[in-house]
Design a protein that fits this description.
The complex is a heterodimer of chains A (about 80) and B (about 425).
Chain A: H1 2-5, E1 8-13, H2 21-32, E2 37-44, H3 49-59, E3 62-70, E4 73-80
Parallel strand pairs in A: 1-2
Antiparallel strand pairs in A: 2-4, 3-4
Chain B: H1 5-11, E1 16-18, H2 21-43, H3 47-65, H4 70-79, H5 84-107, H6 127-143, H7 147-156, H8 159-185, H9 195-198, H10 202-228, H11 245-257, H12 263-280, H13 287-301, H14 329-348, E2 352-354, H15 359-378, H16 383-388, H17 396-416
Helix pairs in contact in B: 2-3, 2-14, 3-12, 3-14, 4-5, 4-17, 5-10, 5-12, 6-15, 6-17, 7-8, 7-14, 8-13, 8-15, 13-14
Chain lengths: ~80, ~425
Amino acid sequence: MAKEQMGEISSIDVRGEICPYPMMKTNEELDKNQEYLSILDVLTDHPPALSTIPPQALKRGFDVDIEEVSAGEWRIRLTKIN
Amino acid sequence: MNIPVEKEASKASPLSLLVPRSMQTRMGFLVLISTALIGLFVSQNQSVVAAVWVIANVFGFTLQRSRFCFASAFRDLFLFGSGHNMKGIIVGIGVSTIGFAAIMSWIVPNTNSGTLPSEAHILPVGISVIVGGIVFGIGMVIAGGCVSGSLYRMAEGYVASWITIGGVILGLAALTMTWNWWWDFTISTEPKIWLPSSTNLGYTGGVAVTLIGLILIYLLVIYRENATGIFTPDIATKKRPAQDFQSRIRNTLDPVFKKGWNVALGGATLGVLGIVLYTIHMPLGVTGELMRASQLGLGWTGLDVPVLNGLADLGGCTGISDDKGLITHTFAITVGLLPGALMGALFAGEFKLRLPNNWRRYVQSLGGGLLMGYAAGLAVGCTVGALFSAIPSLSLSGWVFGIALAVGAFTGTQVIKRIH
């Protein structure tokens, strides 16, 4: 049911934050409105977050796509797996 | 779906300094040439120090590329049930253990002769290492990185890590002023327990016990990951099809210079570097030079700096060194990792001046650094010297320090959960 109403696209900017905060804030965001969220974009400049966030997102049913937006900054796009 | 989020977001970056990718590569080559020239210059008079410098460059490069993080290894087990970094550490210690045993058996063939292998990190076991481990564990979790982690992040452009290292030096100065109290209270009576002789195990037994211990911890980490339902995903990164010569070259270089290394590969590389370094001089350790810096700073303050009892006979990261002048062995290891990590970041295009927006992070960096500095002085080493180099030295102190670190890291996670 929720699948039909979803489509909420959200983004968080965690640049400047180091471990574990990028991951903690992403998890909080995912857990807060897991039902309606379809895409969450996480903007980070902390390379370790690229390997720590994906397992947490997959565990919560989100697919991961990493894109480098500029030198030293990445957008991690988490898309709900239908 | 194409949502132009990134464009808007990139604009709102007042507190950051981005360096374009192409410039980063050029700067990387500049650092490479500079560090090679420094190595050549040093080799004129001190060939061993020059070799240590080069190894330290590779050490820093490896830390940066594999994003090696002792703080995360302990913290994430408790916070998220993730054993990612811990597995890398265990692999690295395992690799080092075998090499260290070979070197030590060459230095001290008969383990019952009553002598300990010189330069091995066999440290006293007692209250000091337990208190040191717990306080260090709390400090590294609060600061978001241990001493080696903060050092390579300094080079990657993390301003908070500069504050952390400043805190470590201040913490070491505080330890210097109180060292003699700790010495009289506990350290002077603490035994150095070396598995091959103290427990009569010999090298074979010592190595066997160490490897079995490591395997058991590895299983414990997997058990914890299973209990929390975490798994390491296979991230399908978009691969450029190798069409022409240039992109084929890029596909060959990218796994080394662009993509983050597998943490087990990073750990194993560090383990091998530890062996190589011990072969030519002494095991890896980064706190010794910071100790020297803090002593130098104390000298300038005009304070009445006490003569540190017993430290000269302890081994490990005491900062005491026979060579004079600025460029010593400890200088080469600690400072030498900086250009290595900087090269790693520049060639990957990951360098960026990073300034936290949240003021609490600066307080955390300084506070965590102070705790780590004091604790590393007390335990005569940090996660590198008192753990990563101590367990392969077949020293019981490494295990005690590791367990105490876990207790401290657990305490630290309770603290940071409450700081947002």
